[in-house]
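testing teh design pipeline on a random one, pls ignore if ur not involved
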């Protein structure tokens, strides 16, 4: 009887989870969580890719390199303004959720795919779990901030990367509303830990010392004035140290729109790379300069100082420890910070963002083992 029961449990997962993802950082986060979920016989995962990122080197490559299995559904929705993108995603996600009838929907981070997934599930009375909950930049002009605030408000289970994020959600009344808040740690720390041994050099030759730079936030690249200011800052930086810049497709479009000579500039623009090459680029860099959320932490995981090309960050601990310098967009300020940091020895005494096993905490909580 007991044996029968065990076999029944093994063959019939009692928790069906639909994961909704669509953008590059979500493939990285989901790769580690999905791997942890697969260790639980009682969990069945169904993956919906909204199609938000669709170029091979922004999407498929991550599934292949990181062993994330092919999505069960690819909705192919991309290249639209925010409302149209979110609305069309919701229509298609609703169809899938009504057919799949999951016990939970799992969403990641702060993109339009995140919000579309959370809002659709909530309207269908399906509990929502949000990974990377409780982060705040307090800049509501950022589409990402709007997405993360609303997704947290809609979620029934909140996985936080930091204690500060837990406290933020408590301050917003989520705990008293009966929502489960779990301090899981940062899943991107898991990704860096698991995949660092597999890092590999990109095909392009690299200088001995370089600043690794990424730029794609709407506030920096959608406004031609600010974009030109950022390019000037990077060109100035190149007079001190080479700057290698994997070019986000959205940024490429903005550069083309202002007629910037991408292939004839001191800035070393390269195509976006996969995660394993990105880890190599990070590991061999002298400094990191970025407006990305994820890269600020990855710089720290690789023990590199980071210069953040924004006026605020949601990863405030890094700034508090002096690992991350929030410099905004003023070129001389950026250049000065680069020059100041170049010769500072890397000293990183504080351990932040958990123990690199966040995905296991998430999987165990979802499987009802915690
Ligand atoms: N990344 C990558 N290849 C690149 C640029 C970035 O693999 O050419 C990775 C980076 O290491 C990080 C993630 O993509 O893990 C960050 O994504 P992005 O900057 O697009 O989003 P954000 O973190 O700002 O939401």
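output:
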């Amino acid at each position: 009887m007991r044996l029968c029961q065990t076999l029944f449990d093994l063959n019939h997962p009692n928790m069906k989870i639909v994961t909704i993802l669509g953008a590059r950082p979500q493939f990285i986060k989901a790769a580690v969580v999905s791997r942890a979920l697969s260790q639980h016989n009682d969990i069945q995962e169904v993956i919906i890719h909204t199609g938000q990122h669709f170029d091979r080197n922004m999407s498929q490559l991550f599934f292949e390199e990181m062993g994330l299995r092919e999505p069960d559904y690819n909705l192919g929705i991309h290249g639209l303004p925010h409302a149209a993108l979110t609305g069309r995603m919701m229509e298609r996600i609703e169809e899938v959720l009504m057919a799949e009838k999951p016990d939970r929907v799992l969403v990641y981070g702060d993109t339009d795919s995140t919000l579309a997934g959370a809002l659709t599930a909530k309207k269908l009375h399906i509990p929502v779990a949000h990974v990377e909950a409780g982060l705040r930049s307090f800049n509501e002009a950022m589409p990402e901030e709007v997405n993360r605030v609303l997704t947290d408000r809609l979620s029934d289970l909140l996985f936080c990367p930091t204690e500060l994020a837990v406290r933020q959600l408590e301050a917003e009344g989520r705990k008293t509303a009966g929502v489960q808040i779990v301090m899981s740690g940062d899943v991107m720390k898991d990704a860096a830990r698991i995949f660092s041994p597999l890092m590999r050099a990109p095909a392009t030759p690299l200088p001995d010392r370089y600043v690794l730079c990424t730029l794609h936030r709407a506030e920096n690249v959608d406004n031609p004035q600010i974009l030109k200011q950022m390019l000037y800052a990077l060109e100035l930086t190149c007079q001190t140290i080479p700057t290698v810049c994997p070019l986000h497709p959205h940024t490429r479009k903005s550069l083309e729109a202002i007629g910037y000579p991408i292939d004839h500039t001191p800035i070393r623009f390269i195509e976006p790379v996969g995660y394993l090459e990105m880890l190599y680029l990070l590991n061999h860099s002298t400094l990191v300069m970025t407006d990305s959320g994820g890269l600020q932490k990855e710089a720290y995981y690789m023990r590199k100082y980071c210069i953040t090309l924004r006026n605020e960050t949601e990863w405030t601990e890094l700034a508090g420890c002096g690992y991350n310098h929030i410099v905004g967009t003023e070129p001389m300020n950026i250049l000065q910070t680069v020059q100041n940091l170049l010769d500072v020895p890397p000293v990183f005494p504080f351990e932040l963002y958990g123990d690199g096993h966040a995905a296991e905490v998430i999987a165990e909580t979802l499987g009802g083992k915690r």
